[in-house]
Amino acid sequence: MAASLRPEVPPMRLSQFHLHTSKETPAEAEIVSHKLMLKAGMIRKLAAGLYTWSPLGLRVLRKVERAVREEMNAAGAIEVLMPSVQPKELWEETGRWEKFGGQLLKIQDRKEAWYCYGPTHEEVITDFARNELASYKQLPVNFYQIQTKFRDEIRPRFGVMRAREFLMKDSYSFHLTDEDLGLEYRNMYDTYGRIFTRLGLKFRAVAADSGAIGGAVSHEFHVLADSGEDAIAFSSGSDYAANIELAEAVSPGARPAAQEGMRKIDTPTQKTCEDVAALMGIALQRTVKSVALMGVDTEGGKTDEGSQFVLALVRGDHVVNEIKLSKLAGLGEYRLATEEEIDQHLGSEPGFLGPVAPKKAIRVVADRSVAAMADFVVGANEKGFHLAGVNWGRDLPEPHDVADIRNVVEGDASPDGHGTLGIARGIEVGHVFQLGRKYAEAMKLTVLDANGKAATPAMGCYGIGVSRIVAAAIEQNHDDNGIAWPEAMAPWNAVVCVINPKNDAAVAEAALALYAELNAAGVETALDDRGLRPGAMFADIELIGIPHRIVVSERGLAAGSFEYRHRLASEAENLDRAAVFARLAPKP
Amino acid sequence: MAASLRPEVPPMRLSQFHLHTSKETPAEAEIVSHKLMLKAGMIRKLAAGLYTWSPLGLRVLRKVERAVREEMNAAGAIEVLMPSVQPKELWEETGRWEKFGGQLLKIQDRKEAWYCYGPTHEEVITDFARNELASYKQLPVNFYQIQTKFRDEIRPRFGVMRAREFLMKDSYSFHLTDEDLGLEYRNMYDTYGRIFTRLGLKFRAVAADSGAIGGAVSHEFHVLADSGEDAIAFSSGSDYAANIELAEAVSPGARPAAQEGMRKIDTPTQKTCEDVAALMGIALQRTVKSVALMGVDTEGGKTDEGSQFVLALVRGDHVVNEIKLSKLAGLGEYRLATEEEIDQHLGSEPGFLGPVAPKKAIRVVADRSVAAMADFVVGANEKGFHLAGVNWGRDLPEPHDVADIRNVVEGDASPDGHGTLGIARGIEVGHVFQLGRKYAEAMKLTVLDANGKAATPAMGCYGIGVSRIVAAAIEQNHDDNGIAWPEAMAPWNAVVCVINPKNDAAVAEAALALYAELNAAGVETALDDRGLRPGAMFADIELIGIPHRIVVSERGLAAGSFEYRHRLASEAENLDRAAVFARLAPKP
């Protein structure tokens, strides 16, 4: 047993590296990245949402961190390091001490002063800026940090995908004019593209709703993966991409002329569009779904009952988009109507609702697709019946509102006029915002402009979930045998596997030499000299996802070749030394 | 105004770097490193003990971090990253949830579970180890991390020297045998020496009291600086060095024969040894100081009064060492005696105490030096009087205990027998401990040994205050004009200063070329193209401590020379291009 701890530098011999894989699939892990990170021994759980990064996991995390840092530096951003613990007073200046909600981990120190563990740093950077920035000559400037954050998730899960403590790159830019902010926003947008491209990830930048952080313009960056939480609409014919919550469903063509007369259909148990279409033997696209809503009067003003009740109509194959609905007048906040309210306004019960002949005058909001329909099918406001051959202007008045109130679907025309939309699933790993002057105004940050007058700078903020990228990359790059890292994120790019190192000195020596030469040639290479049986060794190497595997064996040496296999190749090849280097060594 | 943010990479043109110095000396800063870090704009205070590292400060911090990481890797330690937030349950396993005291920042999450912001990671790493380590074959192993810690200092001060949130390298090693622990302890001891040497710091490794963290053997690493909080004794003739609290005061020679008779001296107002010696016209070394103590009975057992009252004697020029005293039987805990207790046992009031003829039988503890004295002076236990010519065995009994109970002083013999001791002041920046099995036992960490039996590993732990090193280096390396960084810690090694860049294109161009060539030659060089007047520019450069300054001016260009000045040189020199490179470029 070797008692001394002075191996070569850096430690890339796996016999001296703490690699600790597991054959069992951990029961608590719901998603593949969480399972594989536990099986590969990249992380270990300390408590809910708190993970230790093992030596193997940290190697990957640092690759991501380094790529982010180098690209941020190249983009002209300047690195700082702010405290993780932040005083309550700053958060009160922006009103977020209360508003941020339960995710804010509040802390009381020994003097009973309140702090929080920073989930984000708008307040701290704005405080820093109001001390550091005095003149427009110091602008534009973009400060960034790579730092541990904490969000007290109510249900932490999915390993580091939704951990409570996580590593984040956050940056904040300051500008005299909106135009300058726009330029830097574009710079960061492009930089994020370079970061994810460099990391070897398939991703999309999508227009996003900016949510709670505020500001007018924002984009999310998503790593594409079937398991992604978010749906993204993207064009087949252009760069257009948007979160499905925001993607516009464009107006269809003109409404065709009515061909049928309105008639009552007997639908005793058919309460959904799908069931009615099946019964009638027609396409789902010819049916219309009616959703009964109550606008909530949040202003405290007086509104009559009729204007509160709204019947929203979307095509049978479409889904109502709540964010789009909430942008309509009177629907800033709304809820589903109760059965009693539905009966009161329509004289019907759920399952048979429709816009034709309601009990009271009601407001009808039709999706653009519905407004362009003729001869459609709706509920009859009578239990057990639907109406077919319905037409606007003849059987019921034109809708009060025609608006885009649905999610786009695969095959919709792209809103930019080029191509049609596809839908992909993505994992959000980055977000860029134009914050405008919200924080600067709240915290009274000003600089002197060229005329010596105090001016409030415009701000941008730009985040990347560094630890989350590791999990997202696995969701995108894995197979049944484990992880398949993109080159830029792999803990090592290559591994030299030694068969039987203890009993075969010649093999061990040849492997050691190849390992050293590959590293000298700039290929970050590990040496698997642990002495495992080949099957166990190869399973480990596939599980932890090393892109290139080279096996040194007695038989290979005799034939003057090494067995080479790419992580994603179906078979191994026998290559001589020169061919191995041609395959692996970076081009000069 | 340049609105775009895409300068060259990395940003080393000061016009594009956020440098923000200040002429004012901040009133709140008590020590020179804190003052200079604020003036240079390296840090900015967010709240008590919480500092943001500016771009300039962070460059220095990262230099330290990198040196530590590279040397730890070279020493065979393996990097991990543990959560900063730690669950209470782990700290209860070791009993430290209560014992650690007020420095432990306790946090309650939204589910009302208790956590702390980790001030150290013994519990977490031992928990990690009991999950990761199963066999002696995985040992020895040394895990380290470089991570943000929090200690809720009751009085945070001195900037990052005693901040609450700080950056630390902590590592923890695991071993089957004590012998292996000893080997790795030595490895870390040597590694720490390499780190501080590489950083260009004058330091000493000293034997230390291991305090609250526990374990038997420990050393502190101190950066030497006159302003240091800790006193270190070191030998002139060997490597011996120890915290003054621990350095042994060796036995003096044999006691000389008595020469004088005991006599009473009139000392009406002389209550200190200094005053008495001055009055008598004798050396302070001939007087003896009496300190009256009460041993505190912590066991709850019965102790008679006489054994509780202790009179401790040290030479008039010596200082009692509380740690040494507390190692004596019955003095594990003690306090100063009250005036009433003194009167009760000695029949005297403070200022005139002595061991001769006490009112009651008392225990007398004499320092080794005192036990070796003859014809000495002590208080007479009578107000206004001292006794001179006092001798052991004749005027009073031999002392009950003779022990080393004083601090060493300059000129004492070194306890290793080589040379004499000097005293230096230092700032503790590193600490290595042999923890033994304390944590492993408390947390039930075992591995299987070669015989398949469960064995409890021995542990070592090794800390470096990464952010503290930055402040300590300044305490050691500064002058009236500012910081004078050692090369390895400088934000840049050199700066090219441009005189009048806007009005003189040839000068600006020559400076840019020199700056680019120096960087290409491996000299990390900044370009001061801010367009400041020379006086203000040079003051900034001296304040922030860049080792090498090269000035490009119209006059210099005409003469084919650059003005070169080392940060610590008293004058500038004119050097041609080749001479500049010879001075600055690292030898190949």
From TrEMBL, chains A, B:
Q: Which InterPro entries match?
A: aa-tRNA-synt_IIb, aa-tRNA-synth_II, aa-tRNA-synth_II/BPL/LPL, Anticodon-bd, Anticodon-bd_dom_sf, Pro-tRNA-ligase_IIa, Pro-tRNA-synth_IIa_bac-type, Pro-tRNA-Synthase_IIa_type1
Q: Does the keyword Protein biosynthesis apply?
A: yes
GO molecular function (one): proline-tRNA ligase activity
Judging by the UniProt lineage, the source's domain of life is Bacteria
List locations, semicolon-separated. Answer: Cytoplasm
Keyword Aminoacyl-tRNA synthetase belongs to the record: yes
Cite the entry's keywords alphabetically: Aminoacyl-tRNA synthetase, ATP-binding, Cytoplasm, Ligase, Nucleotide-binding, Protein biosynthesis
Q: Which reaction does it catalyse?
A: tRNA(Pro) + L-proline + ATP = L-prolyl-tRNA(Pro) + AMP + diphosphate
Q: What class of enzyme is it?
A: ligase
What's the chief localization of this chain? cytoplasm
| EC identifiers of the protein | 6.1.1.15
Domain Aminoacyl-transfer RNA synthetases class-II family profile: from-to ranges: 49-486
Regarding domains, what does the record say? Answer: Consists of three domains: the N-terminal catalytic domain, the editing domain and the C-terminal anticodon-binding domain.
What PANTHER family does the entry give? MITOCHONDRIAL RIBOSOME PROTEIN L39/PROLYL-TRNA LIGASE FAMILY MEMBER, PROLINE--TRNA LIGASE
Relate the assembly described in the record: Homodimer.
What family is it from?
Belongs to the class-II aminoacyl-tRNA synthetase family. ProS type 1 subfamily.
Record's function text? Catalyzes the attachment of proline to tRNA(Pro) in a two-step reaction: proline is first activated by ATP to form Pro-AMP and then transferred to the acceptor end of tRNA(Pro). As ProRS can inadvertently accommodate and process non-cognate amino acids such as alanine and cysteine, to avoid such errors it has two additional distinct editing activities against alanine. One activity is designated as 'pretransfer' editing and involves the tRNA(Pro)-independent hydrolysis of activated Ala-AMP.
Full protein name: Proline--tRNA ligase
- Source organism of the structure: Lysobacter niastensis
- The gene for this chain is proS
